[in-house]
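Example record

The entry below shows one chain as it appears in the dataset: sequence first, then structure tokens.
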Amino acid sequence: MKLYTKTGDKGKTALIGGRVEKDDLRVETYGTVDELNAFVGVAITELQEGCQDISKDLTIIQHELFDCGGDLANVMKERQYKLTEDSIAYLETRIDQLTAEAPPLQKFILPGGTKGAAALHVARTVTRRAERQMVTLVREVEDVPTLIQVYLNRLSDYFFAAARVINYRAHVSDVEYERGGQVFK
């Protein structure tokens, strides 16, 4: 199999069921989801010992992000989406577990700490960009799987909670934003 097809040389790309310009909002959105998936892969490589549960979560998330990309690329009339409500429920459960493990949060914190936590903060911000693009896509395009928007919203929260736990397990304190007041009670 050749990796290059030359079919995109003139600025168009294939969707599942059609072709569009490479800068189409749908392509931009699933491209950002693909970028996010790559950052999750980086985060996995940066995890320290004692974070096997988070590594397992991240691998599951990578598969789900692939599902999101496929669902976004599918423009066929009759289609079934791969991402399900179960994925969101799993993230919510894990967010609650991770939040309970980390020390209580009172102020905004600066992204950073261990390499694994910092990588997840990058993934969190890319997730927020994908979510913003998804909002625009839902508003401008009919028949877009809106469940992805909800998933991305939960996913950024998961990355935040997981980053805090990674630092906590490594005995690295969060650095509070010093010019901010108490925002979490």
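Notes for this example: The radius of gyration is 18 Å. The mean pLDDT is 93.
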